[in-house]
Amino acid sequence: TYVKVTQTGDHNIFKAVITGSYQSLTTTQTGNYNYEDSIISGMNNTVLNSQDGNKSLFQNISGSNNNITTSQTGGNHFIDLTVPTSGNTISITQSGAAQKLFSLTINSPNVGVTVQQTNATTPDSASMSITCNSGPCTGYTYTKN
Q1: CA angle, residues 82, 145, 33, in degrees to nearest 5
Q2: What's the pLDDT tens digit per position in 19-42?
Q3: Phi-psi sector, 125: left (phi>0), alpha (psi -120 to 50), beta
């Protein structure tokens, strides 16, 4: 199954529940004050999120061998990511001259999460939090420049 969603303008809401294996979801949101809530469970799923403007994204990813790529550019961004299982590849990039906020909840080692926040022209006003519910929590990298 392949699902592609494009939302333009302000105040859009999108919720996706992806279950099973070999599913593909591509979302694009442009404008401001948009919100996405995605639940991905199963194996070998691919999710590509692109958000431009002021956005919030909530993702809960379970299963293994899932490939999740999220790019947030432009305005203020918030992402809340819960990864209860290991063996996933998750790449998140937040860029632009505005606040970047990130919350990661980990429930197993080797989760496979890479987060990069680029905020070259705005002072460090953003936050990042990582919660480890059962350790050791490894397999993630966080870079802020």
Answers
A1: 55
A2: 899 989 899 999 888 888 988 889
A3: alpha
Give strand pairing partners of 106.
Answer: 83, 132
Q: Tens of pLDDT along 63-73?
A: 888 888 988 88
The single residue listed with the structure tokens 């996405």 is 36
What distance in Å separates the CA atoms of residue 71 and residue 51, rounded to the nearest whole number?
Answer: 6
pTM of the complete model beyond 0.85: no
User: What is d(CA 124, CA 39) in angstroms, rounded to the nearest whole number?
Assistant: 30
Strand order, beta sheet including 2-7? 2-7, 24-30, 46-52, 67-73, 89-95, 113-118, 140-144
Show the CA angle centred on residue 95, arms to residues 119 and 116, nearest 5°: 85
* Residues 51 and 75 sit within 8 Å (Cβ to Cβ): no
